Amino acid sequence: MESKIALPIIFLAVFYLAGATTPTVVKPSSSFIKSSCATATYPALCEESLSPFANTIKTSPAQLAHTALAVSLKRSQSTKAYLNKLKRFKGLKPRERAAIGDCLEVVSESLDRVGKSMQELKKYERAKGQEFIWHMSNVQTWVSSALTDENTCMDGFGGRAMEGRIKTSVRAQITSVARVASNALALVNNFAHKH
Known about the structure:
This protein has helices spanning 2-20, 28-37, 43-50, 54-57, 61-87, 94-123, 129-152, 165-194. The protein is mainly α.
């Protein structure tokens, strides 16, 4: 009886060990994302959020910057949707509802700025010299403004009376958006300097 149980266990152990020693193949696009993200504010988050798009990014700094902005836009959209749902929650204090409303405005402005940045980044292909610098300057300004807006969102939750689950929940969402935007700004800056 014991030998009948031991055989499948030995087989599984050998199979597992064989799998564990198989070398992993690193695609050039994956290593490009990893090395590019090393200069971002939050490298691990940068790599995690951009790796799913490795086939699109390949080794293009422009595509990397564009994708980082797209990820930032998507994160802002999901945060806006979350805040809209949260604002309708019946158990909110009036000050919490007002603070969430302020955050919604901030996230909406951020969405607009990141969207403009993506459009502006597309124009770089036709731009040369000073025109390219101007387009990149616009992108950098808009993403920086979006980042500042996201950081100021939490001002409405100041004071001890506002401590609690709502503030913690909103802070987690806003922090996530701000970190992704910060990474996007770093990658846009790198692209602008290398071009």
